[in-house]
Design brief:
The structure holds 2 protein chains of 2 kinds.
Chain A: E1 2-18, E2 21-38, E3 42-49, H1 54-64, E4 69-70, E5 79-84, H2 94-108, E6 112-129, E7 134-150, E8 159-165, H3 170-185, E9 197-200, H4 214-217, E10 239-241, E11 265-269, E12 272-273, H5 280-286, E13 294-295, E14 304-305, E15 310-312, H6 319-322, E16 326-331, E17 336-337, E18 342-347, E19 349-354, E20 357-362, E21 365-370, H7 371-374, E22 379-384, E23 394-398
Parallel strand pairs in A: 5-7, 9-16
Antiparallel strand pairs in A: 1-2, 1-6, 2-3, 3-4, 6-7, 7-8, 9-23, 10-11, 10-15, 11-12, 13-14, 16-19, 17-18, 18-21, 19-20, 22-23
Chain B: E1 8-24, E2 27-44, E3 49-54, H1 60-70, H2 81-85, E4 90-93, H3 106-119, E5 126-144, E6 149-167, E7 170-180, H4 190-206, E8 208-209, E9 213-219, H5 221-233, H6 245-250, E10 264-267, E11 288-292, E12 295-296, H7 303-309, E13 317-318, E14 327-328, E15 332-335, H8 343-348, E16 352-356, E17 359-364, E18 367-372, E19 375-379, E20 382-388, E21 392-395, H9 396-401, E22 403-406, E23 413-421, E24 424-433, E25 436-443
Parallel strand pairs in B: 4-6, 8-20, 9-16, 15-24
Antiparallel strand pairs in B: 1-2, 1-5, 2-3, 5-6, 6-7, 9-25, 10-11, 10-15, 11-12, 13-14, 16-19, 17-18, 18-21, 19-20, 21-25, 22-25, 23-24
The chains are: A alpha+beta, B alpha+beta.
Chain lengths: 404, 444
């Protein structure tokens, strides 16, 4: 019997923001151990939260083999350790840091009430198996998520700001929040001429994730059935699994839950549909390369699929290199893609960008387009969102006339 | 447990049993049961809340003591408005001891879902079928420094059949989900599956695209429930009103907010996925009308929001598990069926519009969205062909005023659902109601 063991430890410190003030401090320390057993035909999984009895886990995993869940045994022998812990600020200062930030935001945007969360998270993940593979990752990150509400409005929230990554720059965050608040208060008319639109990276394409699973696609189901090897999108459009480059703010290990090390696998390369998300089960079943996309729903689950590291590849350094004037869709909540590929997406909050600056808030608009057109003839590129000073992800830009 | 004077503290302890069996195509891809034992501890000193989560319940006292060390003793804590709001209930309510899903062998659950999967395998357009059985029973214990001492349980069971169909270039994914509060009550008949497949095949072969625009729509009870949850339920969660005088005026009780025909309520009393006899602050659930006859009648509260707005507790402080603090959430939210019309009557009034039978998901900000799955065109008062719609949406308040029909009480149905709010997803909720018709919604 072969085995593999994954130990995951997480520690998070977070401050809740309510009515513009720190309202609560939460500390969560959690650890869990997963043990998978393989007999060559089946998998047996056992897991424990907190204190672990390895013998008990081993016995439970061996016993779980009798449930008859088919799974190949394919263990690698890689050894690698990455310590990616960055100095952000000490976790015991999170209330002080949050209080200082919120006081400055209140001064910078006095018309608005802030709520949300500031969180520091530390992760440690270790993978070992009976073939002597040993992979270990340590990392951390910061998430600042603030919802703003105009004190004169009847909405629950009016706009959002999100910054993530390894750098805490109070000046940058305050400056960004002020810029958004000023823009929100300045209503502008929709431009008469056709200008591009920009949405958060993957805001549309992420709706197709279920179709990138081999069990669907290789059996002839979903939007990408029978399309492997075909040119479906623009020459510049590529989709890759790259855990450390995605938004440059993820706290993601360099290996998936099966110990497969990320090798920059491209699902779409230059517009050509090349491959699918895979784990060791589907790679064996459908003769696919490993994409390092195996993930577990919980600490004792059979591996399935995850999207950690899956992202559209940047085509330029910054979004203003692609277009300097565009409609920036800041909030798209809801919406979906119909079976015929029609994307229907109400854009809840849009700003007008002129000469690389957000100049004001636009009326509600609706995006209705075909998925393959959007990432085909209309696709202009993807790049870091440099409208902000903070790290606020990337934008996909489309040459598409949006309807009021 | 030893609580200290000069602080408020409470401890929520959950022992959660869950099992899951999943087939993907012909392969068994999951078959497991799990027990998770965790606790969440809160301390309040009148200024800040201090929280921690522990996966070792033996450490509850030491973790509680650490939180006391972070907080500042407050001799007047019992006069704090939030503390004065708390109910101090003492109860033991174990409804599911005798039909506990943990006592049902995993093999029996596996047989149940495998048998249903086999009913659908021969469909000529089927490319992939997935069949999932899942259940959960949680036993909660809640103790507070005020003397609350509650033990209760919740339980729900779900079976889902998902199909991916294709014919030529046409594809269609559909699902059938059934929920119950015990294994014995979970039913999916062969006839139901055959009807589901027949409708799915018909949709695949004949569904047409739609011309985006504004149209009258009729929503089936499960979709009406999503509409109630997304359009008004989230707006009724009172945490967004904290420290905001404008909101208190804009959302004054007694204000006309919807058509006269509309009443929406939330209650944790209904057995199923939204069953919450006590919330995670120990408050007993209440039936809370959010809208009654078009008038804003109530909203959903935690102790903090109830104290802030000086309203009564409703039993809506909930967390998804013991990693998180309770926040204001819905339980089971329903559109009350009290009209005189039948479903056919609602359809008959529409010259050209759409009937939304099932949906995939929804969202609710100033505009709500619902992503339909199975939908039909209505022409001259009759349902005609299936249609492919990506999303229906509208401004919340405008749309609430455009509801022009609600069907009878006997049409009411309740479905299970998962709700996300900020970092907490998925929270089990219930949603449903009667059929409703809306004179205008955006269809894309």
């Amino acid at each position: 019997m072969e085995t593999e063991k994954i130990i995951t430890k997480r520690e998070s410190h977070s401050v809740n923001i309510s009515a513009g003030k720190p309202d609560s401090l939460r500390k969560v320390v959690t650890s869990f151990t997963t043990l998978r057993a393989y007999d060559g035909q089946h998998i047996g999984v056992a897991g424990q939260i907190g204190k672990t009895d390895e013998n008990e886990l081993y016995n439970k995993a061996a016993e779980a083999l009798n449930r008859g869940v088919p799974y190949p045994c394919s263990l690698a022998t890689d050894k690698k350790e990455v310590d990616d812990v960055k100095k952000i600020f000490p976790s015991n200062e999170i209330v002080k840091v949050s209080s200082s930030l919120l006081a400055r935001i209140e001064q910078a945007a006095p018309r608005f009430t802030a709520s949300g969360k500031i969180e520091l998270e530390f992760t440690e993940k270790e993978y070992t198996n009976s073939k002597a593979s040993h992979l270990k990752y340590k990392g951390n990150n910061l998430e600042v998520s603030i919802a703003f509400k105009d004190k004169n409005s009847a909405n629950i929230h009016d706009f959002y700001y999100g910054h993530g990554g390894f750098v805490y720059d109070e000046d940058a965050i305050v400056s960004d929040c002020k810029m958004l608040a000023d823009a929100f208060l300045k209503e502008v008319a929709a431009p008469e001429k056709k200008i591009p639109i920009a949405l958060d990276r993957g805001a549309v394409f992420s709706r197709t994730i279920g179709d990138l699973v081999p069990e669907a696609c290789c059996n002839g189901a979903g939007k990408f059935a029978n399309k492997i090897g075909k040119k479906l999108f623009a020459d510049t459009f590529s989709l890759v699994v790259d855990r450390k480059r995605a938004d440059e703010k993820s706290n993601a290990p360099f290996f998936d839950t099966e110990g497969t090390i990320d090798n920059g696998y491209k699902l779409i390369d230059g517009g050509i549909f090349r491959g699918l998300l895979s784990n060791k089960r589907s790679a064996s079943l459908f003769n696919l390369p490993l994409s390092a996309s195996a993930a577990s729903d919980s600490f004792d689950s059979v591996p399935s699929y995850g999207t950690e590291g899956l992202h559209i590849v940047d085509t330029a350094d910054k979004v203003t290199d692609i277009a300097d004037s565009f409609i920036y869709v800041a909030i798209t909540s809801g919406g979906d893609i119909a079976p015929d590929g029609t994307v229907g997406m109400p854009c809840q909050l849009c700003y007008l960008v002129e000469n690389g600056k957000i100049v004001g808030r636009l009326p509600h608009v609706k995006l209705t387009a075909n998925l393959f057109d959007l990432y085909g003839s209309a696709y202009m590129g993807t790049a870091k969102n440099n409208l902000y000073k903070g790290n606020c992800g990337s934008l996909d830009v489309f040459d598409y006339h949006i309807k009021k | 447990m030893k609580f200290k004077d000069g602080f408020y503290a409470d401890v929520r302890h959950e022992v959660r049993y869950a099992s899951n069996v999943r087939y993907m195509g012909n392969d068994l891809t999951e078959c497991k049961d799990t027990v998770i034992d965790k606790a969440f501890i809160r301390v309040y000193d009148g200024k800040m809340w201090y929280y921690c989560s522990t996966d070792n319940p033996e450490n509850i006292q030491s973790e509680l003591d650490k939180l006391y060390d972070c907080a500042t003793q407050n001799p007047d804590i019992l006069n704090d408005p939030i503390i004065k709001k708390f109910e101090v209930n003492r109860d033991k309510l174990l409804k599911y001891e005798k039909n506990n899903v943990a006592d049902v062998p995993l093999d029996k659950k596996r047989d149940f879902i495998e048998k249903r999967k086999k009913f659908i395998e021969d469909d000529e357009y089927l490319k992939l079928a997935a069949a999932v059985y899942s259940d959960r029973r949680s036993v909660y214990e809640f103790r507070s420094s005020l003397g609350a001492d509650i033990t209760y349980d919740t339980q729900h069971v779900t079976a889902a059949i998902q199909v991916s169909l294709a014919f030529g270039k046409e594809t269609f994914d559909n699902h059938l989900i059934k929920s119950a509060d015990s294994f014995e009550n979970l039913k999916i008949t062969k006839a139901e599956l055959e009807e589901f497949l027949h409708e799915s095949d018909k949709f695949l072969l004949t569904a047409r695209s739609v011309e985006p625009g504004s149209y009258p729509v009729v929503l089936a009870p499960s979709v009406a429930g999503v509409f109630a949850h997304e359009s008004f339920g989230h707006k009724s969660e009172a945490d967004f009103m904290l420290g905001d005088e404008t909101m208190k005026k804009e959302w004054a009780i007694g204000k006309k907010v919807a058509a006269d025909i509309l009443s929406i309520y939330d209650t944790g009393d209904i057995y199923g996925t939204g069953y919450t006899p006590y919330d995670d602050e120990g408050t007993k659930t209440k039936k809370t009308y959010l809208i009654k006859d078009g008038i804003l009648t109530g909203r959903l509260h935690s102790a903090k929001t109830a104290a802030s707005i000086d309203e009564e507790l409703t039993g809506n402080a909930r967390a998804i598990n013991c990693d998180y603090e309770p926040i204001v959430r819905m339980t089971t939210t329903l559109i009350e069926g009290k009209g005189n019309d039948s479903f056919k009557d609602l359809v008959k009034q529409i010259r050209y519009g759409y009937f939304i039978k099932t949906c995939k998901h929804g969202s609710g900000l100033s505009r709500f969205t619902i992503a339909p799955n199975v939908a039909y065109r209505i022409e001259n008062g009759r349902i005609t062909c299936p249609v492919k719609i990506a999303v229906i949406s509208g401004d919340v308040f405008e749309t609430l005023g455009k509801i022009d029909g609600v069907s009878k009480a006997e049409d009411m149905q309740i479905d299970g659902g998962n709700c996300g709010k900020m970092e907490q997803f998925p929270l089990k909720v219930g949603m449903g109601g009667a059929y409703i018709s809306v004179s205008e919604m955006d269809v894309q």
